[in-house]
Amino acid sequence: MKNKAVFFNIYLIFNVLILNSVAQVNRFKKGFVSNENVLYGLNSRTDLNDPVSVFGQVFLCLSQEVTVFPSENYYYFNLNINGMVLWGSMSLSADKRDKGIISFGYIEKSNDFMGEDNNAAGGSKELSAADGLKLEKVNPFRYKAVFNGKTVFFNLNKLNLSKPVKAKLMQDEVLVGPNYDESGLQFFLVFNATEKKMYWILNEETYVPEGFDKATDFLFFGRRTGFAFFNDSINNRKILVGVDANNVLKNNWYDGPFDQMPDNHVYTGELEVKKYIEATYPADSGRIDKYGNYLEEEGVRIAIAPYYAYYSKEDLIAMLEDCLKNETVPSSLYSCLTKQIFYLKD
To answer: From CA 311, how far away is CA 342, in angstroms rounded?
Structure first.
């Protein structure tokens, strides 16, 4: 009997190792992009003036189970088709998905794209039952979509709501909630009660898929994302202080976490963000819903962007050095470091 128990335990361990190995291989496959597939896509055709048709093409490409990582519930994609590259998204927004709606949009992006391109191909539509889409809630973090006979389950990101352990919060700081940005980085949104100000802190409680270059003793730049972080060594944390303005103009996956609020947990009632948004942006009090969407502007939400959109690293460093020189109180310093600044370059 003892030998059987030992054999069974070995069998279980062996199977766990195999399953973990298969899962790792599948992750590698999902991150693999071949020139072959890109060229096949570029030579395929569809009517880009028909959003429902394009949605059907994208929907066919989805696996039966997909994970929507960004916390605002946008499932982003790139599609090579008609000799061009489309950037797009399917959105299962917290305020519309229970109405059976998936918001869908796409636009052609060129290598030198910067800002609006009036000649770019693109389209958008809110798809619903009227378009042949059936969207059903399985539970607050899982939705079943059926379109043209195909079924896809969308698994929404259930974030860890625990306070950070490695990073320290000061006495006048409150954790508003976590975030999962489309860049792949995760953040904690913190509200400073003294300054009535919110800022983003990098979540280093888990693996951070980014490498960093040290620009100064107090500043790090992400090699992949271009995100800039103040090294708050006293509290063992990195505060987001800058994003590359060119990425903001391109509206790509590295334009900053300004729109990735923890909507799913506001939806479930686990988090409340509105009071912190209104305290930080008092001019917008009474103008937003519980998610931060403007009540009178459909599809527009307040941008939680307390950082500098920089065109040069030198400009950012100079601004931060001024803060370090002039501010000695921690809360005032953090408020200065996280000014919400973006301007169009001449």
So the answer is: 10
Looking at 126, 156, 186, the residue that finishes a domain is 156
Q: Per residue in 306-339, pLDDT tens?
A: 999 999 999 999 999 999 999 999 999 999 999 9
To the nearest 10°, report the CA torsion of 335, 336, 341, 346: 180
- Could you give the CA distance from residue 310 to residue 21 in angstroms, rounded to a whole number? 42
Q: Cα separation of 178 and 201, whole Å? A: 9
Closest CA to 249 of 77, 70, 115: 115
For residue 117, what pLDDT is reported? 64
What does 273-335 look like in DSSP terms, one character per residue?
-HHHHHHHSGGGTTSB-TTSBBTTSTT-B-----SEEES-HHHHHHHHHHHHHH--SHHHHHH
Q: Tell me: do 221 and 312 sit in the same domain.
A: yes
Instruction: Residue count of the chain, please give it.
Output: 346
Closest by alpha carbon to 232, among 244, 217, 221? Answer: 217
Q: Are residues 230 and 203 in the same domain?
A: yes
Residue 147's closest CA among 161, 130, 167?
A: 130
- Structural domain span for residue 277: 173-337
Query: Dihedral through CA 126, CA 255, CA 162, CA 158, nearest 10?
Result: 30
Q: How many domains, the chain?
A: 2
Of 128, 156, 184, which marks where a domain is finished?
A: 156
Both tokens of 111, joined, read 């290598």
What is the pTM (predicted TM-score) of this model?
0.90
